[in-house]
Structures are given as structure tokens and as C-alpha cells.
Design goal:
The protein is of the alpha/beta class. Among the domains are: 202 residues, Glycosidases (TIM Barrel); 61 residues, Oligo-1,6-glucosidase, domain 2 (Alpha-Beta Complex); 75 residues, Golgi alpha-mannosidase II (Immunoglobulin-like). The chain is 27% helix and 16% strand. It has 15 helices and 20 strands. The strands form five sheets. An eight-stranded parallel β-sheet has the order 11-10-9-3-2-1-13-12. Strands 14-15-16-20-18 form a five-stranded antiparallel β-sheet. The longest helix has 17 residues. It starts with 10 loop residues before the first strand and ends with a strand. Bound molecules: 6-O-alpha-D-glucopyranosyl-D-fructose (ISL) and calcium ion.
Length: 548
């Protein structure tokens, strides 16, 4: 198992389609990533996670992979890729590839051969007869709406697709599927890749029989099944686990704590770390993502505290993140995208970068980018959003209700182009961008990053602090002020050193309980000037103090 240290690393996530276009087709590309390597290096990160750029029909922006060992010509060539690895390496940074192994595109040759009747490839997928009365094998729902079963008229059968109808689930029970996936990972390892992110990897094991879910969408039948652990151990042993210097992260959809600890524990030889999403479900009443509700501060705090404490007890390891390409921009979601945009972006960064785990920064987070603000369905591109739009309309929701929801929740919020400068296309492209640029690129862009007060410099400083202080890398987590309605505070402790983090999550000043911040401590970072007596926290104020 990789013996590599995780606590001093940071990862930058790139959504290539929206990062930097270099040939004027309006779509970001690998040469664009190469062009911006010096920018990323300035931040001080170690790894670049790129979401999929394999050949794909782009129904789900590349998560419908049609060939795992090639580059989609829209993004560039294998030579561009090799150059990217080499150029990143020169700057001390490594690539993390996105492995989408729960499903592949129905255009992948495996599925095409299965459709043509090849029994070897048929067994790569989960194909079943329907139930009497023309019903699919079970009533499970796809994550993007509709049945999770796609109909195959030629044989009057169905294939399972937990996601889009173009994403057929792979049958991990079949050893040939596991061979094929191992082969893919080894292919990229040989190309010099040093990190892997495994998409919805806790869903790869499926039950023996397919029953109706009488009180849900079916996810309890395929989430965290015991065999996932076996499959991950095998993948580890046959691929990345043979190397000391490769890191891995599993995306865990609705995984529980016990399983998360097993996936990421050092002793279990599965993955280096996991993304859990529980801290982001704090604004979904009753689990429905599309209903609008303000975030519940107490739930957020309670969630972070429980997971930090329990993961440490079980020796699990977290990938720390506020959002990614599937989630709205965090400053719009639980910060203040208006008056206190800069303060709240820095405050949220402070909370996250002080925690136990490995921090991930999503492109644009380091300059405080905000939600897209799209007002019309023609501006949206995401398949999930388009499906939900139709569903909400057919349920009789008004335009106001529907757009209110999309503007807060759509995955496109995080997918608008990176805001490099203050021109019309934000320096992203010379052509027409595949998705509109946020008009606020006039004010929010990378041009002011030299300014010592910029959000960019703040992120850079946080990453440098992590590299400098073992207490941030390894310290034990101690929750503080569990009941305080406005402040999130905690301590990290290591070898007599004590790091205290205190953050005001709201736009009003709030009292700071006496003695919380050690009088003798040294302020490592804050989003406000620190002088004089500390008896309160200003709007969205964050402070990190070290003693010892
Ligand atoms: O964004 C979501 C729905 O609102 C999440 O449930 C998301 O589908 C889940 O986190 C899995 O995400 C990953 O796999 C999907 C892909 O669409 C996402 O972009 C990817 O991050 C299917 O491959
Ligand atoms: Ca391009």
C-alpha cells in the first residue's frame, strides 16, 4: 500500500471542458491545462485531478466513457497528454486520473459487442428479463430520472444503468471485467500518472437478485455491499498498490461511516482516502436535492465533527472538499456571494484547510467564483438539470419555482468557464464557449491574485501552512463550541502544539467565548487584521491560532 504521506498534500481539481480553450472551439483542452500549469503551481498544490477526457459522446460530460485508454480528440492527443504529465512533473506536480468503473458508455465496444450477441461481452453488463406485464426487472430509479433499466427491443431484455441511459453498469462479478479495469489503471500508471479518483466506486457491487424497493429509489440494494471491499483490495493489489508513490480517492455516494473507514483505512489496503458527501446534504430537506432550504448550520457542524472524530478513531482518511463539478459554488451556497464574498470565501477555506485530511480545491474556488445565475433553460447543459427541468414543469411547478431551484442546485453552477480575466469570454476562449461565461468575470477573475488580500493569496497561504505545520497534517481533532449557533470552532493537537480554528459562519458580529483562543498563541492566518482584544468575531471572520 502506498506509504506516501497524505496530510501535507493538496489537490487541484480541473474540469477540462471549462478550464482553458486553446483552439477557439469553445471547449477547454489539454493544451489549455498545459498553458495554465504555472498558475496552478503558484498555489502550491501537489496533484491535478482532471475529470474524464476520454472519448465519449458527452451525454454526461465525459462520465460516459467510450474508450478508457485514449484521449477524445476534442481535448487533444496522447502526445498532448504525455506533454502534460512531463510539464506538470517539471513543476513537481502529478496527474490524478478519473476512473469511471461503475459504468461505461453504451457506445463503448464492450457494450456494442454485447448488443451484437457476443456472450463474452454480454456478461460484462447486467442484462435481465423484465417482469410480467412489460415491466423492467425492478422499480429502481436512475440517479438522473426515470427507470434504472434500459430496454433492449431486439431481445426483449433490460440492462441496468444507475445513471444515464447511455451509461451501462458493469458487472464486477465477472472476473474479466475486473481484469479489464486493472488493465486500464496499469495503462495510465505506465504513462506516469500518480493518482486515481474512482467514480461512485462504492456502487460497483450489485445484489444477486433484483427486488423492488418499496420505500425508495433502490440505492439501499447496491450501496456499500460487502463485495466492494473485496473488489477494491483486488484492484489495489493488482495495480496502484504495487507502488509506494500513488494516491487514490474513492467517490462514495451515501456511504456510511463504518464502510468509509474500511475504504480508506491504512490497514485495509483499499484506497488512500474518500470523498463523503454528508456535509453537503445540509440544505436538502428530506433528501430531495431540488427543494430549496437554507443550509442548517447546526447539521453542518455536527456532521463535520462526527466524521472528523470517527474517521480519526478508525484510522480512515478524508478527501476534504467544499464542492466539485457536481455541486453549486460554495460561496453562493453557504457563504455570501454579495457583500461578504471575499470574507466568506476565505472563512470557508480556513475551516476546510485546518481539518484532518487532504484538501481539494475546485477550479475557480481559489478566486471565489459564484453560481452561474442562468435565467433560461437554453443556458443549461447538464443532463441531470435538463431532466429535472422537464419533471418539475410536468409536475406543474411555476417558472419561478423551477428556476429558483435550478439557480441554486444545478451542476452547471460549477461548470461555467474559469474566469481568467475581465474580458467578455474571461480569457477562456477566443470562440463561443460551450456554456456561458458568468458575467461577473469583470470583477471576479485571476488578475488580482498578486494582491496580498486576494482570495488566491489566502488559499496559497493555507496550503503553505499545511506544508509547514505537522499539527495541521497529523494533529488530533477536538471539536469545540458544539452548541454555538454561529461559530464553528475546533482544535488540532500534536506533541504539545495546539492549533485553534474559529470561524463565524454569518454576516453579523458574534461574541467569542472567553478563553477560546489562547492569549499566548500566534495568529497563523485570518481574513481580518488581528489586533487588540478578541471578544468577538466580525462578519464571516476566521482565525487560526497556534500555541506551542
Ligand atoms: O451530482 C449528483 C446528483 O445531483 C450526484 O449524486 C452525483 O451523481 C454523484 O456524486 C456521482 O457523481 C459522479 O458520477 C456521475 C457523474 O455524473 C458525476 O459527474 C460524477 O462526479 C456518473 O458517472
Ligand atoms: Ca478547445
Amino acid at each position: 500500500m502506498a506509504a506516501i504521506k497524505l496530510g501535507d498534500k493538496a489537490v487541484y481539481q480541473i474540469y477540462p471542458k471549462s478550464f482553458q480553450d486553446t483552439n477557439g472551439d469553445g471547449i477547454g483542452d489539454l493544451r489549455g491545462v498545459i498553458r495554465r500549469l504555472d498558475y496552478i503551481k503558484e498555489l502550491g498544490v501537489d496533484y491535478l485531478w482532471l475529470t474524464p477526457f476520454y472519448p465519449s459522446l458527452q451525454y454526461d460530460n465525459g462520465y460516459d466513457v467510450a474508450d478508457y485508454k485514449a484521449i477524445d480528440p476534442v481535448y487533444g492527443t496522447m502526445e498532448d497528454f504525455d506533454e502534460l504529465v512531463a510539464e506538470a512533473g517539471k513543476r513537481g506536480m502529478y496527474l490524478m486520473m478519473d476512473m469511471v468503473f461503475n459504468h461505461c458508455s453504451t457506445k463503448h465496444e464492450w457494450f456494442q459487442k454485447a448488443l451484437a450477441g457476443d456472450p463474452f461481452y454480454r456478461d460484462f453488463f447486467i442484462i435481465r428479463k423484465g417482469k410480467a406485464g412489460g415491466l423492467p426487472p425492478s422499480n429502481w430509479l436512475s440517479k438522473f430520472g426515470g427507470s434504472a433499466w434500459g430496454y433492449l427491443p431486439a431481445t426483449d431484455e433490460y440492462y441496468l444503468h444507475l445513471f444515464h441511459v447511455s451509461q451501462a453498469d458493469l458487472n464486477w462479478e465477472n472476473p474479466h471485467v475486473r481484469d479489464a479495469c486493472c488493465d486500464v489503471v496499469n495503462f495510465w500508471i505506465e504513462k506516469g500518472v500518480k493518482g486515481f479518483r474512482f467514480d461512485v466506486i462504492n456502487l460497483i457491487s450489485k445484489p444477486e437478485s433484483y427486488e423492488d424497493d418499496l420505500c425508495g429509489d433502490g440505492h439501499k440494494f447496491y450501496t456499500d455491499l460487502p463485495k466492494v471491499h473485496e473488489f477494491l483490495k483486488e484492484l489495489n493489489r493488482r495495480t496502484f498498490g504495487r507502488f509506494e508513490d500513488i494516491i487514490t480517492v474513492g467517490e462514495m455516494a451515501s456511504s456510511d461511516l463504518e464502510n468509509s473507514i474500511r475504504y480508506s483505512g491504512r490497514a485495509t489496503e483499499e484506497l488512500s482516502m474518500i470523498f463523503d458527501f454528508h456535509h453537503l446534504k445540509i440544505d436538502y430537506p428530506s433528501g430531495n436535492k431540488w427543494e430549496i432550504q437554507p443550509f442548517r448550520f447546526h447539521d453542518l457542524k455536527h456532521n463535520l465533527f462526527t466524521w472528523q472524530t470517527e474517521m480519526e478513531k478508525g484510522d480512515g482518511w478524508h478527501a476534504l472538499f467544499w464542492y466539485n463539478h457536481d455541486q453549486p459554488r460554495i460561496v453562493s451556497r453557504i457563504g455570501d456571494e454579495g457583500k461578504y464574498r471575499v470574507e466568506s470565501a476565505k472563512m470557508l477555506a480556513t475551516v476546510l484547510h485546518g481539518l484532518r485530511g487532504t484538501p481539494y480545491i475546485y477550479q475557480g474556488e481559489e478566486i471565489g467564483m459564484t453560481n452561474a445565475g442562468f435565467q433560461d433553460i437554453s443556458q443549461y447543459r447538464d443532463i441531470e438539470t435538463l431532466n429535472v427541468f422537464n419533471r418539475l414543469k410536468s409536475e406543474g411547478k411555476t417558472d419561478g419555482e423551477v428556476y429558483g431551484s435550478l439557480q441554486k442546485k444545478s451542476r452547471d453552477n460549477a461548470r461555467t468557464p474559469m474566469q481568467w480575466d475581465d474580458t467578455e469570454t474571461a480569457g477562456f476562449t477566443d470562440g463561443t464557449p460551450w456554456i456561458e461565461v458568468n458575467g461577473n468575470c469583470r470583477q471576479i477573475n485571476t488578475l488580482d491574485r498578486e494582491n496580498p488580500d486576494s482570495i488566491f493569496q489566502y488559499y496559497k497561504n493555507l496550503i503553505a501552512l499545511r506544508k509547514a505545520y505537522p499539527v495541521i497534517q497529523e494533529g488530533s481533532f477536538v471539536p469545540l463550541l458544539e452548541e454555538d449557533p454561529r461559530i464553528l470552532a475546533y482544535r488540532r493537537v500534536l506533541d504539545g502544539q495546539e492549533l485553534t480554528v474559529a470561524c463565524n459562519f454569518f454576516g453579523e458580529e458574534t461574541a467569542l467565548p472567553q478563553g477560546l483562543l489562547p492569549e499566548t498563541g500566534r495568529v497563523l492566518i485570518s481574513n481580518y487584521p488581528q489586533e487588540g482584544k478578541r471578544d468577538g468575531l466580525r462578519p464571516y471572520e476566521a482565525v487560526m491560532v497556534l500555541r506551542g
